[in-house]
Amino acid sequence: MRAVVVRRPGPEALAELVEVPTPEPGPGAVRVKVAAATVNPVDLMVRTGVGGTPFAAPRDQWGVGWDVAGVIDAVGAGVDFTVGQRVIGISDRLDVSLAAQADYVVLEAQNVAPAPTSVPATAAATIPLNGLTALQALAALDLTATDSLLITGAAGAVGGFAVEIAAARGIRVIAAASAADEPTVRALGATDFIPREADLPNAVRALVPGGVTAALDAAALGPDALAAVRARGRFVSISVPTTPIPLRGTEVTTVLVHADRSQLDELVALVDNGHLTLRVAETYPLDQVVTAQRRLAAGGLRGRLVLIP
Ligand SMILES: NC(=O)c1ccc[n+]([C@@H]2O[C@H](COP(=O)([O-])OP(=O)(O)OC[C@H]3O[C@@H](n4cnc5c(N)ncnc54)[C@H](OP(=O)(O)O)[C@@H]3O)[C@@H](O)[C@H]2O)c1
Q: Which CATH number fits domain 2-127+278-308: 3.90.180.10, 3.40.640.10, 3.40.50.300, 3.40.366.10?
């Protein structure tokens, strides 16, 4: 089968499509025939490494791709999926030599859930990584309907899901994004909008005297976003390098996404009930992964890029 890998991470590294043996699922795992796999910022980090250092122990190759939608093609022992079942799944590791951007991917059954019935695979593939990140970031903030929540990068993949889920829970959402994205984030349920050119802390305090009770920093702004949070408020970073120091008694948490079957089920139910908006920017054949990564790196995308094997 074909798989996207990075063989020598570094500033000039490119993802490569290579021929590899089709992997077999062991006990507790399934093999998914990939129908769609998204391209995410983390793919660019696998390629370059962080600060020139590869993510995990050096090996011949690093697998690329976290999100998948497809069909169960083979099952290991003790698995409650059947061959032919449509699923979504997440490869939530960096220390793997094969991942979701491939003709087939082997995943632990706990990383997989039945696919939504209301959307095609291209859209379904956009759910796992960024939907789980949004859910887990909101859980870490432990919000109630009395909270005011700043979401930076509100028009992005994580930010958009977080806006829609938090707003549906009755939380006042203050969205920070590019001015052109105001209609989009308001349609997702944001109560207030701050354009990215604004002085964020002052703009937030003009809306919520003293600052918001909580912030989800999906644009990785770090200290600027924390400054918009009131003393002893709560802050979630989803980017390790930009996690700010918890000044003024704030509680700062860095959330790194992990697979969770019941949360995948929750996201699928939201989609099928029309409460979670999926956005696909463009699709590319799997062999155009380098072009897709360049398009992502250029910025300004609205919706996810999806690779089709
Ligand atoms: N911790 C985890 O487990 C986890 C999981 C998923 C993602 N992430 C990370 O989370 C971040 C967001 O991921 P994503 O997939 O949602 O990226 P994305 O879709 O590119 O969204 C980021 C958004 O932030 C916007 N933005 C940039 N600067 C801004 C500013 N100053 N004010 C307001 N908005 C701004 C971007 O607009 P433009 O495109 O116009 O610049 C874009 O809409 C990335 O750093 C990613 O690596 C972490």
A: 3.90.180.10
